[in-house]
Amino acid sequence: MSIRLFVRCCAARATSAVAISFVVNGAAAQERPAPRGEGVTLPPITVVTSQVAKRKLKRTAARPVARAIATSSQPARTDAPAAAALAEKGTGFGTRTGDSVGKGYAMPYATSATKMNGRVFETPYSIQTVPSDIIRDQAVTTISEALKNVSGVQIDRQGVYDGITLRGFAQGFDRWIYRDGAPFRNSRFDFANIDRVEVLKGTAGGIYGRIDPGGLINMITKKPLATPYYSILQEVSNLGYRTAADATGPLTKDGSLRYRAIAAFEDRDSFRDFVDSRNVLLSPSMSWDVTPTTELYVNYEYRRMEQVFDLGIPVYNNVIPDVPRSRFYGLKDQPPSVIETHLVDAILTQKLAEGWTAKVRGTFNHDVTLSYDSEPGGSLVAPGFTDIYYSKFVGVSDSHFVEASITGDTQITQDIRNRLFASAESYHSEQNSGRNGTTDPAIVRPLNIQNPVYQSWREVADLPLTIGAPSFTEWRAVSFQDQVTLFDRLDLIAGGRWDWSNAGSGSCALSGGATGCPPSTPMDAKAFDVFKPRAGINFRVTPEVALFTSYSESFGPIVGFGRLLDGSLPDPTEARQYEAGAKFQTSDGRLNATVATYDLTRTNIVTPIPGNPTFVNQIGEARSRGVEVDVAGHLTERLQVMANYAYTDARITKDTTPTGDPGNVGHRLYNIPLHQGGIWLQYSLPSGWRFGAGAFAANNRGGNNENTFKIGDYIRVDTNVSYSWDTGFGKATAQFNVTNLFDERYYASATYTPGVLPAPGRTFIARLRFEH
To answer: Which of 177, 200, 247, 441 has the most crowded Cβ, counting Cβ within 10 A?
Structure first.
């Protein structure tokens, strides 16, 4: 069902204005609050004018672009794909937007590439979105499952965290992931309150500052809606169960105060012996239109994750042992590691003059981690026996992020449009932790790889914490970006960011039951200032085809350990990227595609100095070159597709060893397949039945940077079927998914021990969802 959205006439103006109505998908009805006024209901007005058919409309100078009707680069949408409904008139991370659910696989708008809510087709960067519809269809609950739909992304799981590799480069130790544009370290997300995932490829230091060179993951959360909506989901699988509930709507008659409350609980076993997990999420939020031009959004999130630490199967002498994929190598009855998070996020948005918006946001995050770990220690203590490393970790982390930004969208002349973004931000995080660790065989018995006889965790004394490690990271930054559009065809972007950063760490001996170092503990720190630019050109050849190219740089964490010859700490790594490609969209906007080629180089990697183990050089370098293809949207009215392919040639180009040898020069970076891809097809019938199937594949990957062993290739097939019906008081959907339909045995990734982490076998998932 469709409705007409219209712009109301402004009574205070002396001149009259006319509202232009246009048809959108019924799901967009959830986006906007009911119009507020003095009880007078104005009917929608449809204006038919010959000007609509023209390529260009005459616009008043300095008037923001409404983009309600088609231009040469924005095809008209007569059948309402409604993805455009995600975009608010303002720019940036607006909260007065609807969910992406029900709007298809093609997402024409994204915020992560420029921090302005703009059309992907007009942006000279490679950015892909995993929307709600694919998340629902594939029964996605983890970031690793979501990102299999994006080219050039691999999961490098380490323990309880899902490390992410983009364009050949793994995340650093901090594992930065963004949430609504704010940075978070070592975060895991429950998808109950995630609307979509945006992936910006390549270096992005010119707008985000300190970031891993492969790209950025931005989790877009669900916001309060003006239309009431309630849902409950029950999931049962052969590994456990999951329950999620969502309620949203207005708290006032005029819709100026809106709420949303989301909760989820999950209890799962694992295909791995002695490994299980439990997760809890509570996420209430509220949006308040303080005035017609001012909005305040506040969100609190509580997450508790419990999961047994698991590093997979050990690899010695470059041979992966032939053992069941379920076999666990550690201590039996190991307690789960617990990560508890409290987050508060507040955003104040103020619309200024026409087309201009100011925004201030603040985010506070408090994490408490209690980690128990038993894993292969990395040594064969006897033929066929691996040592076992036992450790316990207690950490407390606090961080805050504050950003003030201004965005502007101005039509300077009939043929020149200008979009501006400028911001200033501050970030500070600090952690204090304590740990212990031992491979002493008198305490932790070695384990037979082929015929393990497990030692119980309870047999190991609860060893006291012995080493404390405080650390901090902070920065202050200002950034700017200007995007100029000429003749509705040529988009030019230029910008940059200045960062003033400081980071440090220390250590101390712990005793008497202490879990961290005292505040007076000295820390080694290094401060640095850096400027990183970005620039790009996007040329819309036709309304369906655009060509783009861009250059960008970034800086990131130190890769390696040690000190330079002058006694100072190493500098951060640097990266630069050249990218070019083409973007395609159908005339109705229901199908889009991106083809990109890139050359990405990371420098300043720490390498040892031959004959001097105390000090290091920063001469290491790695390079990634590749081609990526992403396609999403409707192939027909009933058939949707989300497909991707990546060719990634990621190699070490400069390296040394302690003996002066060239090290791993020429070797491929581990875990990175040369060829990787996937496709998912979903077919819908008018009767309410939907059928889906997909395949995801990668060729042989290196298990370490020495390339002395491989972890193999794989082809995994997933399927789903669902049926929706009207219950009389709402919509019900029964869904059944099978992942790894043919029970393919393969390894998800290699780990640092070294080792390999097996992927799950065939998994059955049944879901029942009620919506009202």
So the answer is: 200
What is the DSSP code (8-state) at residue 319?
B
Name the average pLDDT for the chain.
Answer: 86
Written as six digits, the tokens of 503 are 């980071």
Question: Rounded to the nearest 5°, which phi and psi values hold at 244?
Answer: -140, 145
Among residues 199, 232, 230, 233, the alpha carbon closest in space to that of 216 is found at: 199
User: What residues have CB less than 8 Å from 137, skipping those under 6 apart?
Assistant: 680, 682, 690, 692, 720, 722
> From CA 707, how far away is CA 607, in angstroms rounded?
18
Task: Let me know if 324 is exposed, middle or buried by CB neighbors in 10 A (0-12, 13-18, 19+).
Answer: exposed
Residues in the chain: 772
* Residue 200, token pair as written in the block: 């910006």
- Which residues have C-beta within 8 Å of that of residue 127, sequence separation ≥ 6? 110, 112, 113, 120, 198, 199, 200, 201, 594
How many Cβ atoms sit within 10 Å of the Cβ of residue 89? Answer: 17
Q: Which residues pair with residue 633 across a beta bridge?
A: 591, 641
Q: Which two tokens stand for residue 76?
A: 């008209």
Instruction: Decide: 618 and 606 in contact? Cβ < 8 Å.
Output: yes
What distance separates the 2 farthest-apart alpha carbons in the chain? 91
Chain position carrying tokens 């945006």: 198
Helix (H) or strand (E) segment spanning residue 747: strand 747-751
**Residue 206, helix vs strand vs coil:** helix
Instruction: Identify any residues that bridge with 580 across adjacent strands, giving them in sequence order.
Output: 549, 597
Give mean pLDDT, residues 146-173.
84
d(CA 197, CA 177): 11
Residue 27 has pLDDT above 90, yes or no: no
For the record, the structure tokens of 5 come out as 């959205």
- Strands of 453-489 (E only): list them: 467-468, 471-486
- How many other β-carbons are positioned within 10 Å of the β-carbon of residue 772? 13
Tokens 């972007």 sit at which residue?
493
pLDDT for 662 equals 87
- Which tens digits make up the pLDDT trace of 535-586? 999 999 999 999 999 999 999 866 556 778 887 888 888 999 999 999 999 9
Q: What SS3 class is residue 266?
A: strand
What are 363's two structure tokens?
Answer: 């985010």
In angstroms, the CA 38 to CA 17 distance is 19
